[in-house]
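Exercise 7. Given the components listed, write out the predicted structure of the assembled complex. Treat all entries as one system.
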Amino acid sequence: SEAISNVSRAVSQKSNIAALEGIKVSVAPGKVTLTGYNLDLGITTSIEAETNDSGEFVVSTRLFSEFTRKMGGEDITFEIDDNLIINISSAATECSFSGISAEEYPDLPEVDSKGSFCVKQHLLKSMINMTSYACSTNESKPILTGELFDIEDGKFNLVAIDGFRLAIRCEFAETNDKFHFVVPRKALQELSTLIKDEEDSPCEICTNDRHIIFRLGSVYVISRLLEGPFHNYRLSIPTGFKTEVNVSKKELAASLDRCSLIIDEKNKAPLHCEVGNGVIKITCKTGIGKVNDAITADISGEAVTIGFNNKLMLEALRAAEGDRVRIRFNGAMKVIEILPPEGENFIFLVMPIQLRG
Amino acid sequence: SEAISNVSRAVSQKSNIAALEGIKVSVAPGKVTLTGYNLDLGITTSIEAETNDSGEFVVSTRLFSEFTRKMGGEDITFEIDDNLIINISSAATECSFSGISAEEYPDLPEVDSKGSFCVKQHLLKSMINMTSYACSTNESKPILTGELFDIEDGKFNLVAIDGFRLAIRCEFAETNDKFHFVVPRKALQELSTLIKDEEDSPCEICTNDRHIIFRLGSVYVISRLLEGPFHNYRLSIPTGFKTEVNVSKKELAASLDRCSLIIDEKNKAPLHCEVGNGVIKITCKTGIGKVNDAITADISGEAVTIGFNNKLMLEALRAAEGDRVRIRFNGAMKVIEILPPEGENFIFLVMPIQLRG
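Answer.
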């Protein structure tokens, strides 16, 4: 018999990945390893357990995680017989249900590493959370549904792009090696939810041509990589600018939010934005109604009138860290840049929309 | 022009009622009244406003509530022109959209009161929250989709019943008059969400044969009543009992929760419950799996073996207040009673299920 502690945490972390397949439970003396895998993405966790047995089997994710979570006692005893009947007991409670043979469970890919590097976990989480909004959801160009890990010359750029916008988060790399690979957004989002906000320990990243492993202590996340050439994003970033604005993120977002109230699938219109004389004037008119707004801002350079999509700009503002942002314009039909007030820790690009008249 | 304060709170409280119809705004010198009404249920709120005008019109609930909520300034100015264009402004922000003529808005029913009484608001909320789970959702017997207000001889019973279970919450009435009417569950639930948890002030209840008004300060909730004879619930309550159990609500609910994991639409089975010798043994077996559980309890009277539906019992336990409950049995095929450890402040009844074999 085995006493399993803390199993429910490990299970709930994986439930949405392993839902269709169940969870593979691998028992070795002193240790239990749980695996969830959906052929694209795998997560494994090892925990200590009082057992001298070994073997493996697959259990229903729902029953395994819910029974374990809803047991009364501290220690949970876990037994499986030759007919794959799984028995979970604790104090006066005893539950049993059928398991599945582990023979039917696919093996995780072997990652024969070509190289590895480390990133602090909370930093990786923040990088993912600030950029993943800009991934494409259009499966017709699969490479853009992931994010580019671009590591070169001691710099680590995480890049997402969908054709209308681009998000880059830039950090120093803790390696001098060169890496260039694209990870599916889904895997990065699962990884991000597994990382605690303040977790300072490193995430070890190991990769070959087809797969990647993220190691968070005793938790491993394994994902396939997306293949094909990624957009040469460096060419999209303007080298200069004609107008620069420093504005309260909250005020600008609130204004875009109000404009969004009169925009829906049937009633679309670009936001009409006039920048100059210390004021950003935003107006929008659709079949539903009209909004006129004005926000004070620090503005330098040429005055500019430009149109843009409310949602693309709002999502970029929401992904930005800090209270204020810098916005750079290069003319009415050129890409809009959103940056932090100082430095280029992140760069978000939004394509403008041509205004009529 | 009018300065409206606090309008968004009033609006959001009503949004799901008035969604289809919009909100009627009635302006009188110094006062604005907002009305949401869906022909079954109406809610009105009055607020103070700086205005000398009077008139009325109907606005889109979504635009009105969202624009008001998302305005930057403290004071919001509200204008309407002869073309029913509504203009909301605050600081540098200005939004406009079309209103609808109030001529198309149906009048709320007049309640020419036949009598009224008061209940403390938090008490009414608690009474509703503890009993409404037992209302029927089956529209084929509409009277059971509401709750009976049964007030007589200084006692106030609030009663819900659906054929498989019954919930009564009993309080002293602050009136010696006799009332007997049935209010739709939907109206009571809206009323409950409008009441703050600790609100000690009275709710005034005014009724005629067809409608009821609940007055919470400046907020009025008006509902039609359900017509027809209500089940004579007093006949359903047993006068004695053969077995009485005093048990931890949390432990019993946790056990029923575990059993529920192996019960679904396809795999139904009653919970098999053996009561005696200081232990409640609960077992359940379905195509999914098996659960055996035992809970210690104070048991007096005859031993009994009885079957019941997991959901009906769980919902009754969740609606019960306090850490422990009394459960009374009258034999294997007789109704099960759930009561507080002391007194009869509430009585929940659950029908048993016949066990095979």
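Discussion: Residues 1-13, 15-19 of chain B have pLDDT under 50 and may be disordered. The longest strand of chain B covers residues 41-48.
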